[in-house]
């Protein structure tokens, strides 16, 4: 009798402990906080460092299930309830995580409904654009003139505005290639003879090599953006983002790794690099300089990582162009909203008298002889 009572007590305690753990996962509050944090963040680093960033939330939810802190069924129910409570615009913040293969078991019960909500949102958003990506027979009726300009990176080079003339802009796309959105962006660019610099993440290039090849085949420049988008500088901001301070060797391995991946796919890579979040250190800047690689920043930011409507994103990008008058504009080809507004954006900048510039290295052979890349016969 005592043993039976003891077992009963243990089972009740275990059940109450599990229930307490499960109650600690306030998913609905988490997703609502994500919306608030996205709205209030002053820059991309602040947003991606938020504990409520969708990527961080899903990592936490996955870990909780794997560690037995909550059942898969209960976590899935909480996530579906939380995401379903969001407006379609707010839900766009979670779209990439909803589609990730490692998260499928968590969103399986509601994925179809969530995806329909997102697709309906973008169909509605397209109604406000005179040109949209869904028009298969779209013909722009204009083409940007060829405008290729060379930049010498042999002694290092720092690009903020890209040293272009008034009414000239350089299009740049970070974080791809994306198997969801990069090809749509490429189609929009090709239609109007616009060329861009794609700063690829090594990990994304590894899983999308055919898209890297397509970017190259269509005449764009391809630089790198680190292997995993870690914050590379040796400062408190990057330490907080990464959870620890990267050593110089770890940071340079991030830089080398992405260059190596792209070179392995194409046989070349432009001597162009962009620091994640724009966070660099004097030592890393010197490393790029001695490696004969140009460092690319930006003087116009579309802020396409925010949960904004197509119209708001388009207006933000165009206001940045008008404010600066020339230079480098930052987009991300992992963002669906960027792909959605790209035809209209290109039409608007053309109608306002801007030219699109493609920057290339002064010495095209430097593409094939990168100091950041180990050749097959090197250790």
TrEMBL record:
Species of origin: Bdellovibrio bacteriovorus
Signal peptide residues on this chain, from the entry's feature table: 1-19
GO molecular function: hydrolase activity, acting on carbon-nitrogen (but not peptide) bonds; metal ion binding
NodB homology domain location: 167-357
GO biological process: carbohydrate metabolic process
Alphabetized InterPro entries for the sequence: Glyco_hydro/deAcase_b/a-brl (IPR011330), NODB_dom (IPR002509), Polysacc_deacetylase_ArnD (IPR050248)
Record carries keyword ATP-binding: no
Protein name: Polysaccharide deacetylase
Pfam families noted in UniProt: Polysacc_deac_1
Keyword annotations: Hydrolase, Metal-binding, Signal
SUPFAM superfamilies referenced in this protein's UniProt entry, alphabetically: Glycoside hydrolase/deacetylase
Annotated PANTHER family: CHITIN DEACETYLASE 1-RELATED (PTHR10587:SF133), GLYCOSYL TRANSFERASE-RELATED (PTHR10587)
GO cellular component: a single term: membrane
Domain of life of the native organism: Bacteria
